[in-house]
Input
Amino acid sequence: MFNRVQAKENAKTILRQRTFLDVLGFGGILTAFSLFLAIAQIVTIFMSVARGILLVLLATGSLGRFIWPALWCVLILLIYICIFGTVSLLFQAGMVRSALRLARDDPKVRVVDTVLAGDCLGMYIRVALWQFLFRFLWGLPGDAALLLSVLLMRSSGILGVIFGLVLMVAGLGWSVFISINKSCQYYFSYFIAEDNRKMAALDCLRESGRLMVSHKLDLFVTFLSFYGCNLLSLTLLANVFTVPYQYVTYAGIYEQLTGSFHPIPQGDMPWRSNGKNKPLQENVLKASGSVKVISGEFEGTTFPLAAGEELRIGRDPQRANVVVGPASQAISGLHCSIRFEPATGSFFITDHSSNGTYLDNKLIPAGTSIRAYSGTIVRLADGAMVLRLS
Output
């Protein structure tokens, strides 16, 4: 499923519930990051020009006379990559985490989460390095074509110039195609890394590629649909609205691709402010809940949960009423139990396992009942089974 219109409407509904103080909080963080991006863009333009000059010098055999400027360019590039990459990835980690929690109606989401995702920075750096390596390798034919085009245009004769121009256009076209293709293919690697902390970085890229097999064009069209927002983002004040809107939209699309998306009617959204939750009366009077299996055994199955009922998940049929097969060794005999409380519209999850139960990637203490709300993601062990409360 890929429905950008529905994802956008969901994002608007979610963000309309943030208070003015939250908007100011987002504004301060995003304004600071925008100033940083403005400086980074200047450096990026400089490095793009320097890269083109270096290719020309290499093709003309004149690089030796400009070896020191070339080395300075490489040094500046390395410093730029380290500083810009680290800050950008830290911001990316925070925005992805916040967007996923907002999309999942997490009552604990806070504005400061956008700058408090340092625990994922190492994973994001590894993902970014793999992305850079793959894009570099796929971009080599384009660079080779550009280099060869300069060599041909230096040769005497009109044919050399014509073939050189053809190769130059082909090389530039390949570079643009690879940039768009790989950006779409690997876009959700960071979302997957946030949801699966123990997954290897390379596996995050592979999983993103699997999700995007037939949706790259859809995602590219979604990128283009935000063209107006990106123009507005050139003004710092507009960033307060456009950047969270885009991230929450992409979080919704990620939920659609993983099968865990649920549209939020405008009247059913609780008011949120810095992690505080005031449920609406309609939610409080909810008579029953449900637990949907997002991944693992029983994937796609929804278990209804009425008042007084308890869902017990595990491998032991004597203790569990949702019994998983022996192949799921990470799941304990009785891994966890879930019950619904209609008076508050909330769930209570109790961990009984040896490998842990996680609520939105946070480990809950063994033997303790923890309250959770609709939209919470429950992960058993290392992801052997992932559930969504609703």
Residues 261 and 358 are 19 Å apart (CA to CA). The longest strand covers residues 288-295. Residues 20-60 form the longest helix (41 residues).
